[in-house]
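I am still getting used to backbone structure tokens and would like to learn alongside you. To get us started, please write out a protein record for me. Once you have written the record down, we can walk along the chain together.
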Amino acid sequence: MTDTPAPDLKPSFRSDVTVDLVKHAASDSDVLWAARVSTAGEQSLEELQKDPERSKGLINFLMRDRHGSPFEHNSMTFFISAPIFVFREFMRHRVGWSYNEESGRYRELQPVFYVPGDDRKLVQRGRPGKYEFVEGSAEQQELTARVMEDSYRRSYEAYQEMLAAGVAREVARATLPVGLFSSMYATCNARSLMHFLGLRTQHELAKVPSFPQREIEMVGEKMEREWARLMPLTHAAFNTNGRVAP
């Protein structure tokens, strides 16, 4: 089966990403009953009715001494819209994560593309392993937006031309760039999310510095805000102990 292209689809351009928490079973209490079963057995179920604030010292101890498994007994599912190149970095995170992404084999891909915003640092200075990004000039900003938008338009025109000629979606999509927006569900637990955040965000409290690409950091920051709301004591312990996953 091949597509009849949708009429009048015009490319649009974005500099943001979106992250929605669509489902969760995650609270600080989940850490406590999981930890206390080792000494209290079935009595650990009492933690479900107790205020986790009274045991925040235990959460901090588990984080500090890297007793990691109690942080796995929870779940968060996010719906994320971001450029394809962000998702390709995401897939490096495999332990404790599940993914389902929209498919260019089964649907006609929409012409929404990533163009860096004015606040995106454009110039890499230094050598690999020891470099920094600095602001681009107004000329570089203009060039980047113009060249990327022109490239996106031409690639999407090629995609539409192939679909109109009866070429299968899974073949025609090869003309499209990694700056195309995609969407996916990503499910994780607090421990796997902490590992992700330790690598994909920069933070002044981090013991081990990380230098992520800005676009995946934007996703990480939005995920972290949702997680901090669900598990504030665990999030605080993560920061207190250098943002190193237990």
